[in-house]
Amino acid sequence: MRSFLAAGALAASLAGAFDCSTSTAQQPPPSAPVVNTSTNLDLAFETSDFMRRAAYHDVSKLNEDSSPAGAYGPVNRAWEQNHEAPWYIEEQRVGGDVVVAGIVTNDASTIDRGLRMLEWGAQQQQPDGSFDCGDAFHSTSFFIEAAAHALLVMHLSGFDKQFASRVDYLTPRIHNAALWMVRPEVLAAGKRHNAPFTHRRYAVAAALGETGVLTHDDALVKTSREFVYDGLSLQDPSGYNPEKGGFDSSYHAVGVYYAERYYAWAASDDLKRPLFDMLSRAMAWEASRIAPDGTVMAEGNSRVGDNPEHDRANRTKKLAVGQVFRAFAFWSMISNTPTYLELAVRVATAAHRFSG
C-alpha cells in the first residue's frame, strides 16, 4: 500500500511537468500535420519528465548490443559477419529510440550512434526499396516507423541541421521502403500475413503515416488510414485488440502505442474521434491487467504468457513492459487523465525502469 501511495504522489508531481493541458483531446492539432510545428504532442511526450526518468535516464544501455558499424542484436550482428544466417531489418528499429534519447538528453554522440544503426539498415536496401530479409513486409514496417519517427523528432528539435547530410541520406530510403510496401502485390500479401495480429494494423499505419508526413506524401497518409480503420473494426467489446484470436496484455500495448503515435502525427480530424474512442477503451482494458504492485499480468495471454512465443533470436518473448508504461503515459497526455500517468509510474517502477 505504501508503494502504491508513493507512486500516486510521484505521479501527481510529474503531472505538472507533463502539462496534460496540451492534450489534443481539448486542442486538436491541424488536420494536416507538418514537421515544423513547435507544439507537437509527441515531442512534448518524449521530452517529458516521465520519459526522461523511465526511458532515457541511462542512454548508454540503449545501444550496447550493436556492432561498430551499427548492426543491432545477435541476429543481425551474426549476419553481418557471414551473410548466411537470417536477418531482420526490424532489429535496427532500436536506432530510432537511441536517436530520440540523444535528442532528449542533448547528447549528439548518442544521436550519432542511433543514426548509425538506422544507416546500417538503410545500407541493406534493395534497388526496389525492399529488404531481402525474413518476414519482409512486417519487418520493414517496424523499421521505417522507427526511422521516420526519429527524423520527425529531429526536425522538430533542430538537430536535423547538425546532422543534415545523414537526414538527407535516410529520408529517401525510408520513403522508398514505404513505396515498396504499398505496391499492390506487396500490400495484398502483407495484409494476408498480418491478418491474425491487430497490433500490426497500427504498426503499418504509423509506418506509412509518419513516412507520409516526413516526405509530404499525401498518398501514403491516405493509405495509412485503411489500416487504422481495419484495426478499429477488430477491437473486442471489452476493449482489447485481438492477437491470434485472443487477448495479450503485451502486444495490445505495443499496438496501442503505435496508434498513439499515429494520433499525434498523422490522424486527420475525422479520424481522431474514433481513434480516441478506441484508445479510451483499450487503455481501460490494459489497466485491468496491471496488478496493484505495478506488474503486468500475463495470465491468459495468447502470445506472451503461459505458452510464450520466441523472438528472432529464438529466445522466449518477454512482456513489452516499456511499451506498456509508454502507452499509459502517452494516453495520460492525450486524454488529459493524470491517473494513467500514475499507472505508468507504477509499471515502470515495478520493472525497475524508473529513476529517482
What order do the helices and strands come in, and which of them pair?
Layout: H1 2-18, H2 41-46, H3 49-54, H4 73-82, H5 94-104, H6 108-122, H7 136-157, H8 159-162, H9 164-181, H10 184-194, H11 198-215, H12 218-234, H13 249-265, H14 269-287, H15 321-335, H16 338-350
Helix pairs in contact: 1-16, 5-6, 5-7, 6-9, 7-9, 7-11, 9-11, 11-12, 11-13, 13-14, 13-15, 14-15, 15-16
Report a brief summary of the structure.
By secondary structure, the protein is mainly α. The chain has helices at residues 2-18, 41-46, 49-54, 73-82, 94-104, 108-122, 136-157, 159-162, 164-181, 184-194, 198-215, 218-234, 249-265, 269-287, 321-335, 338-350.
Basic shape: globular
Uncertain stretches: 1-9, 20-39
Taking the sheet with the most strands, its summary is: none
Sheet/helix structural class: mainly alpha
Could you explain how this protein is built, in words?
By secondary structure, this protein is an all-alpha fold. It has one domain (2-350): Glycosyltransferase, CATH 1.50.10. It is 62% helix and 0% strand. The protein is built from 16 helices and no strands. It has helices at residues 2-18, 41-46, 49-54, 73-82, 94-104, 108-122, 136-157, 159-162, 164-181, 184-194, 198-215, 218-234, 249-265, 269-287, 321-335, 338-350. It is globular, with a radius of gyration of 19 Å. Mean pLDDT is 89; it is low at 1-9 and 20-39.
